[in-house]
C-alpha cells in the first residue's frame, strides 16, 4: 500500500483563531459538541484543504482498477477563549487516504517428484531462490506456495520383467478406491515380458481378431 494523502490541519494560534482550515462555532457551553450537521461542515471544509474527499475515493473505487482506496479521518478540537472565558470552539479533521492492492503473480514454478527427487534438496533450492527475490526486489514480498498433491504410482521395465498381467487401480487422494481390475497385454505376441513390441502394441487402438486373447471374456460367459 502507499499513502496518497496525509493531511494535518495547522495548529498554530493564528490558524486556529483565524485560518480557513478550522471551522469555528460560537458557544460558551464547556460541554458543547458539534452535531452531525456541524461535524459534516467541518469535515467537508478539511477535505477541501486536503485535496481529497470521500466522494473522490468512492469514484476511484468504482473504477475497479484493481486497487482499493480508503479514507480515514480524525477530529481535532480547540477551545477559543477571551479574557479567560470560552467564546468559541474550533474543529478540523486530520485526513489520510491510502491506495492498497493484493496482486499475486507466479514468478517461478517447479514440480517436485517424490519418486525421483529429494525433498530437502528441493526445498533448499526453493528457499535460496526465494531469498534472492526478496533481497533484490523492494516493495514486493515473495513467498513459497504449493498446489494440492497429485498422487501416482510408478514402475519401470525392470520391475515388470516376466509379468504377463497387470492390475489397474484408480484411487482418490483420500484413499478411496474408485475401481480396480486385472488385464493382460493386448495380444498373444506380447509374450511374458516387456519388449519393443509391448510398447508398440500399447499404442495401438485396434488389433486383429486372431491376435486377441479373449480368455477372460470367455470365462465370464
Write a brief caption for the model.
The chain has 221 residues and is of the alpha+beta class. It contains 7 helices and 6 strands; from the N terminus they run E-H-E-H-H-E-E-H-H-E-E-H-H.
How is this structure best described in words?
With 221 residues, this protein is an alpha+beta fold. 30% of the residues lie in helices and 25% in strands. It has 7 helices and 6 strands, in the order βαβααββααββαα. The protein has helices spanning 13-18, 36-50, 54-62, 119-136, 157-160, 196-203, 215-220; strands at residues 2-7, 23-26, 68-82, 85-100, 165-171, 177-184. The strands form 2 sheets. Strands 1, 2, 3 and 4 form a 4-stranded antiparallel beta sheet that branches. It starts with a strand and ends with a helix. Residues 180-185 have low confidence and may be disordered.
Descriptive tags:
single chain; 221 residues; alpha+beta; four-stranded antiparallel sheet; two-stranded antiparallel sheet; 7 helices; 6 strands; rod-shaped
Topology (SSEs and partners):
Elements: E1 2-7, H1 13-18, E2 23-26, H2 36-50, H3 54-62, E3 68-82, E4 85-100, H4 119-136, H5 157-160, E5 165-171, E6 177-184, H6 196-203, H7 215-220
Antiparallel strand pairs: 1-4, 2-4, 3-4, 5-6
Low-pLDDT runs of 5+ residues are 180-185
Intertermini distance: 72 Å
What is the residue-averaged pLDDT? Answer: 82
Task: Describe the largest sheet.
Answer: 4 strands, antiparallel
Q: Based on helices, strands and strand pairing, what is the structural class?
A: alpha+beta
| Oligomeric state of shown chains | single chain
Number of domains: 3
Roughly how many Å is the radius of gyration? 38 Å
**H/E series:** EHEHHEEHHEEHH
Helix content: 25-40%
What's the shape? Answer: rod-shaped
Beta content:
25-35%
Helical run tally: 7
Amino acid at each position: 500500500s502507499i499513502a496518497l494523502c496525509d493531511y494535518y490541519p495547522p495548529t498554530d494560534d493564528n490558524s486556529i483563531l483565524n485560518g480557513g482550515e478550522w471551522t469555528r462555532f460560537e458557544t460558551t457551553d464547556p460541554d458543547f459538541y458539534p452535531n452531525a450537521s456541524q461535524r459534516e461542515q467541518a469535515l467537508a471544509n478539511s477535505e477541501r484543504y486536503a485535496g481529497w474527499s470521500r466522494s473522490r475515493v468512492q469514484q476511484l473505487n468504482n473504477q475497479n482498477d484493481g486497487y482499493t482506496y480508503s479514507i480515514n479521518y480524525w477530529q481535532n478540537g480547540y477551545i477559543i477563549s477571551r479574557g479567560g472565558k470560552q467564546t468559541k470552539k474550533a474543529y478540523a479533521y486530520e485526513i489520510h487516504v491510502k491506495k492498497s492492492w493484493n496482486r499475486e503473480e507466479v514468478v517461478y514454478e517447479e514440480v517436485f517428484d517424490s519418486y525421483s527427487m529429494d525433498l530437502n534438496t528441493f526445498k533448499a533450492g526453493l528457499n535460496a531462490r526465494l531469498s534472492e527475490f526478496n533481497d533484490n526486489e523492494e516493495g514486493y514480498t515473495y513467498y513459497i506456495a504449493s498446489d494440492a498433491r497429485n498422487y501416482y504410482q510408478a514402475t519401470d521395465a525392470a520391475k515388470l520383467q516376466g509379468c504377463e498381467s497387470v492390475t489397474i487401480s484408480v484411487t482418490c487422494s483420500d484413499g478411496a478406491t474408485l475401481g480396480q481390475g486385472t488385464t493382460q497385454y493386448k495380444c498373444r505376441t506380447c509374450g511374458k515380458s516387456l519388449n519393443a513390441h509391448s510398447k508398440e502394441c500399447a499404442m495401438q487402438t485396434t488389433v486383429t481378431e486372431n491376435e486377441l486373447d479373449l480368455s477372460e471374456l470367455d470365462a465370464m460367459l
